Amino acid sequence: MAINGISAGYLAGYGYNTKTTNTTNTRGSSFTERMGENVVTGTNNRTLGNQSYNRTVNQTTPMDAYFATAVQGCNEIPSLEDILPMETERYLIRDASDIEGVPAYAIYDKELGKYAYIREDQLAIQRDAASGFAFVIDMNQPLCNNVRVTDELRGLLNDLAEKRNIELPEVPLQGGLTVNRDPKTGLNFLTIEGNEAKGISVIITSQENIDTLESLADEFMQYSAIVRDREIAGLWALLEISGNLKRGSEGFTYLTPDGISYTPYNGDNRAAWYIRYPSPFDYSKAREFLAKGSNLSDAYTWLGVFPKAEVIWPDVEPWNQYNKNESGHGFQYMGR
Fold it and tell me: Sign (positive/negative) of CA torsion 20, 25, 31, 34?
């Protein structure tokens, strides 16, 4: 049972006890061990029916031992080191309490290379009602640290919650997170605050999804003047999936949370440009124009849409603005 978000069993498991006088530490004692705890300090005469007997004061009777053992079974909770790691064919849960000094878990999807760190007091399954996708998400870095919850992982988490005597709530997606879908590739992705330029995390559900990502990265590898390795090709692919990049005849234009950039395929940085948005900025307006507008490689076309914007003519390199997450299935905007 949880009280104000704190599990009563949690306190018991860490040795919290309001009674501190004249107590005997019996944690870890078995039923038979408690039966042998005969501390003689005097005697009492007792009568049961027609039978009388002497009981040594503080001597453990079978009934005392039974209740003591039963109470221990209800209140004591295995420590993390006693129950972790927990593992299935696909998932692994490790103890991560050393990170912040509080009970916490590192949850790995071994099949996809995904990872999420989550504190025990924040452990919850977040579900998107429209798509049905569910996740465990570290809300400090939601696009980098998240793991999709399958039936296999749910079973493992339920087992963990039962052993630790904690609740495992299921809640709607938090913090403005939403699930969107790329109409071109059919890939679903997690994004935040309705601003895909801030980053996405592609929701991988099959090998086919991975093959789609790899195929798209292959397409960007052909732009060898500006794509120096597959890591960068994968980043461009993710930007396109998120709807923030559009390829033109001579280069591509893409959006960031605070600007619009153009990079020519031939790598001529004299033709590259960057437009800094005015504040406040209507991101949805820019996204719509990127999808439907024409002559997008011309900076002055964009100035017609955002007349108060500022044009800068620098060496525009997306890898100075974005970081891919550990699995390579998502990116997050890092700013300039």
Answer: negative
CA distance 238 to 227: 14
Cα–Cα distance, 194 to 201 (Å, whole number)? 13
Q: How confident is the model at residue 258 (pLDDT cuts 50, 70, 90)?
A: confident
- CA neighbor of 163 nearest in space, from 70, 76, 88: 76
Phi, psi for 240 (deg, rounded to 5): -70, -40
pLDDT tens digit sequence for 48-99: 334 443 444 445 455 454 444 444 444 567 888 889 999 999 999 999 999 9
Task: Give the list of residues 6+ apart from residue 140 with CB closer than 8 angstroms, or none.
Answer: none
Largest CA distance in the chain: 107
Task: Give the rounded distance of the alpha carbon of 75 from its chain centre.
Answer: 30
- Lowest model confidence (mean pLDDT) among 63-67, 133-137, 202-206: 63-67
Q: Which of 27-36, 151-160, 202-211, 244-253 has the lowest mean pLDDT?
A: 27-36
- How many whole angstroms separate alpha carbon 315 and alpha carbon 270? 8
- Predicted pLDDT at 315: 57
3 state DSSP class of 109: strand
Alpha-carbon distance of 203 to 209, in angstroms, equals 8
Nearest to 187 by CA among 173, 199, 205: 205
Cα gap 261→272, rounded to integer Å: 8
Distance CA 309, CA 243 (A): 21
Alpha helices in 54-174 (DSSP H): 62-75, 80-83, 151-164
Write out the two tokens for 251: 């280069």
Q: Taking the mean position of all CA atoms in its chain, how far away is CA 93? A: 13
Q: What pTM, to 2 d.p., does this model score?
A: 0.69
Interaxial angle between packed helices 230-241 and 207-221, expressed in degrees from 0 to 180 and rounded to the nearest 10: 110
pLDDT of residue 7: 30
**315 burial type by CB count under 10 A (0-12 exposed, 13-18 middle, 19+ buried):** exposed
Q: What is the DSSP letter of 154?
A: H
